[in-house]
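hey so i finally got around to running the thing on that chain from the lab meeting. sorry it took forever, my laptop kept dying and i had to restart like 3 times. anyway pasting the input first so we r on the same page abt which one it is
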Amino acid sequence: MTSAQIDDKGPDGPHAAAADATTSGEGYQRALGARQIQMIAIGGAIGTGLFLGAGKAIAKAGPSLILAYAIAGLVIFFIMRALGELLMYRPVSGSFSEYAREFIGPFAGFVTGWTYWLFWVVTGITEVTAAAQYMTFWFDIPQWVSALVFTFILYGVNLISVKLFGELEFWFSMVKVTAIVGMILICAGILTLGFSDAGDTASVTHLWSDGGFFPHGIKGTLMTLQIVMFAFLAVELVGVTAGESKDPKTVLPKAINTVPWRIAVFYVGALIMILSVVPWTEFSPGVSPFVEAFKKMGLGVGAGIVNFVVLTAALSSCNSGMYSTGRMLRDLALNGQGPKFFTRLTRSGTPLIGTTFSAALMLVGVWVNYQWPGDAFTYVVSFATISGMWAWIMILISQIRYRRLAERGLLPQSSFRAPGAPYTSGFALAFLAVVIVMMGIDKDTRISLYCAPLWALILGVSYLVLKSRNPEGKAFAARVKR
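ok and heres what got predicted. didnt touch it at all, straight out
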């Protein structure tokens, strides 16, 4: 449904009926239960960005990284509540692509859908390649073999049923959660009881005694914002599950409302504990802070444990990519903005062709990465970060426009209104703008901004070609001004 179809004058108009129709699942099976949705939501906020990327961020900001995660976490909560308001208004599998199409325009929906699809394809390529590299920690086998096996296993899981996908994601998330909670408890024990090799030096004073809380100044903290936000990419995945949740009106708000404590425990809490046990000056940019902490504690098995957890995080991300790419391609096809054959579902309700096409591209990417692991591949990988943030921007703008229409009585009110909106949504947009500026200043992340215009040009040309072939189609109807 595009916004061009919405010309009713109130909540009882034709749009309301259409909204009810979309909640039936759009051909999908509503097989994801509350337990699975909750863990998907939790797992989406915990990835390799925390287990590996935090090391580089600690080196740049020191203990003030804790504050950066706390502020960024608040912004993520604003984004997720904005998404939640839209989901309760109309829970559809296309999620933010559908909302962008309805409240901003057909081209915005087109760009959002294809960009989010590319984000997960590229992420899947990098994560399955990383998982293969992690396997070499235990086994002396060619990297491409592990990558091939992992890709086929996850592809098979996603084709069998959405319930199996949810179950696998549940256990992937459980491993990550258990690892972080275990680390927090161990650190708490060291701080209070003084056991392990770090017992004599562990102290919360490390948070401010080694150069202060801002050892590199405010600028150092600001330069980590992009790293921090990258760690939260995929938290919005819970929105894509809306069309396959058994009870989206109940389950999704509960999952979204857990965002604050998830970030408080898994990011802020974990960093406070780790940096209290081990001074920030002892962490290296290219090494996981969890591995460094285990070494300082004298726990020899730490490296193996962290390697297993990071392997799980990488497979979890690739599993999510397999799931979301097929849904995004089907949503685009249903709206005339993608090939019609992507609309086909298997008997179990999974988008066969879309998932197969995406998985095939992931395999090609693994091969390219194996053959030419140079700058060209790095450019593509870096683009994943800005494309993921595009989805957040579209969520916020869509929610602001939806709220404006709902308050005028043109659309039904959501049962899960974002607190403080539209001001909180405006603040989140401003924060994301600051992050993008920081990306342009930092030479390590600047390349992702170079890739964005090229992708925009490809999408623009593709959209014009599709529109010329079907100028009267619903996918290209102008958005009604209200």
